[in-house]
Every structure is written in structure tokens, then in C-alpha cells.
């Protein structure tokens, strides 16, 4: 999104990255803009209610100005896949963080904007048109436009401005959306909220599974994983093991934010006569162990009977339809050391048995087997979904 405290002449080339883990969302934002005078860019955030005014952690990406260029290179060979109340008296000044080339503050509520300089506030009329932000927080970045002469400040002279690109702005916050990734894409460029806006956006999402097709188009999966150097330079923003997806939005569109949700594992309301057939997805490996995908596939194939038997014992052969995702983390020696789950079933005993089987999927003890993550999706379904051979 671009909500600006002062009018801007141009905004283009917006890129936004988002990732979520353990109740926190990471977000990075980049754009090119042209404006006269200093102004602020305001990003509404769906923070967890009651988080306080020190909840946002800003991340300095001044040493990684090509962060989004590095992400774009991964797609060189894409694979398809009311009222806010009366203003309050001025409170203590909000904390200012120096984040690379920016001064940044976290504003915990709409009414706390009075604690910022007048140049960096929005008209109350804007917030009246955005009631869904009433209990959200806001990341505010001070931007430097071109200096204005006295005649320009008085509105007696105008001149064209030059667009400039700024290095990515980034931060992390505790999110109220446990499964979703939030992208701030609503526009306020001229002090007013319009029903439609011109989009020129690239959205990048790290999610365990691709999101459903969006009204603006399809998400595409990166053909490769980010390099270790990019992950290191990104200061914790990127996860080298989680799949990366991209959505491009352009043209005239409804003026609203975007929320990405991974494709659900459950199959709701199956027919009463449905027979739950066991299926297993193709093995998906990320990180250095991806070079061992063929070996991993053979290991999983050898364990299919054990996985199938576990489902039969705990759910029955005609159980309700649904899937379980296992994410198996490997250490540098190629040994599985941790298993995480996302399950459509409330069956702790089943998950415990699946974990024990997954922890036996050991790579050969060869120097350089490498760390990484293995994704397995299995369960009962009406028809096989790209199953492994049995």
C-alpha cells in the first residue's frame, strides 16, 4: 500500500515481501516515488490487539538494497502453480528509530498520530473512510522529497519532480491473522480514499503451500531457492526452506489490501458414501538436500505401507476426508531432527506415529548430505493426488 501524509506526484514499481512464523509476520516494502518536501509513508498493520507501542521490530536493509532484485531472479524460470472518537491531548513523543536511510516510528493506534509531527499525519477524514483500521497499528517511515522553494511552498510555482528509488523498508510484528499473510496495498496518494487505484505491484509470499488464485491473477512459484548469501544479507526476513511465490498486480483495480492464505488441506462436506483412499504427494525438498530428492523419494516410497497403516489404525479405512502435512527438518549430516505438522484431523496419536516414521527417513551418512526440509502431504482423499508409486 501507499498511504502518504502529503500529496505525491508519482509512485511506481512497488514490491512487497511477507513471511509468517510463530505468530509474527515479516514484511519488506520497496517503491519509487516523486514528491516535493518531506512526507511520511504509513503502513497499517493487523497487529495482535494489546501488543503495546514497542511491539514492532524494524529491520535495516540498507546493506541489502537489491533484496527484491534477488527475489526476481528466482523467478527466471517460473513454474505454474464509523468514528474513531475525538482526538486526544498530545501525549509523549513516539520513539524514533534510525533504520538505514529512514527515520521510522510505530504508531499503536489512529489516535496516537497526534504524537507525530504535523507533516506526518493524515486528515481525520481519511481515517473516517477506513474504519477497519480502527484498532490496528501503523509503521511510519519519513521520506525526503525534493526541497521546495519559497514560491513552491506558497503554491505560486510548480516544477516537475524526479523519481527516486529507496532501499527496502522492513520490520516484523505480532499478527492477528494466524494463517494469513497481509500485504498493505491500499492507496492514499492525494489525501483522499478512492474506490479504485492504479496498481504496479509485485507481491512475494513465503508460505508452506501456494495460495489460491487471486482475483488479480495467479501466484507463481520460484524455480529455485534463495542463495545463502541473500538469506544472510536479508537479516532474518527470508527463510531458505519455505517456498516462495509471486503475484503481479497491474492496472486499474479495487483500492484495497491483499491477504494471502495457503491452499487449505481439508476437504469439507464429503459425500456420505465417500471412501477415503490413502494418497501421498510427490516428495518436495528444499535447501541443499534437494539434490538428494531421488533418494528421499525412494525412502518415502519404502515407508508408504507404514504411513498407510498408521492412518488405518487411528482413523479407519473409511475415515472422513482430509490431509496431513509433515515438514521434516534435516541437520547438516542428513539426519531428520524435527517434524512440524499441519493437520485436518484432531488425532494426536496419529501424528505421534507419523512423526516416528518420518524421523526414520535418514539420508546416507555421506559427508555433505546437507541440511534442508522435506515436505510430505498425505491422507484420505476421494481420488489420488499425484501419489507416489506403491
Description:
- With 390 residues, the chain is α+β, with helices and mostly antiparallel strands.
- Helices cover 14% and strands 33% of the residues.
- It contains seven helices and 21 strands.
- The chain has helices at 67-73, 124-128, 150-153, 228-233, 293-302, 304-315, 348-358; strands spanning 2-4, 10-21, 24-34, 38-45, 57-59, 97-99, 102-107, 137-144, 164-165, 169-174, 181-183, 187-188, 196-206, 220-221, 244-254, 258-260, 277-280, 284-286, 322-330, 336-343, 372-381.
- The strands form four sheets. Strands 2, 3, 5, 9, 10, 13, 14 and 15 form an eight-stranded mixed sheet that branches.
- A hairpin with a 2-residue loop joins strand 6 (97-99) and strand 7 (102-107).
- It starts with a strand and ends in a 9-residue tail after the last strand.
How would you spell out the order of helices and strands?
EEEEEHEEHEHEEEEEEHEEEEHHEEHE
User: How would the global form be characterised?
Assistant: elongated
The proportion of residues in beta strands is: 25-35%
Which regions have little confidence, pLDDT < 50, spanning 5+ residues? 77-90
Q: Outline the biggest β-sheet.
A: 8 strands, mixed
Helix content: 10-25%
Going by helix content, strand content and strand pairing, the class is alpha+beta
- From the N-terminal CA to the C-terminal CA, the straight-line distance is 48 Å
Number of helices: 7
Mean pLDDT: 80
Find the count of extended strands (DSSP E, 2+ residues). Answer: 21
Instruction: Indicate the multimeric state.
Output: single chain
- What radius of gyration results from the CA coordinates? 24 Å
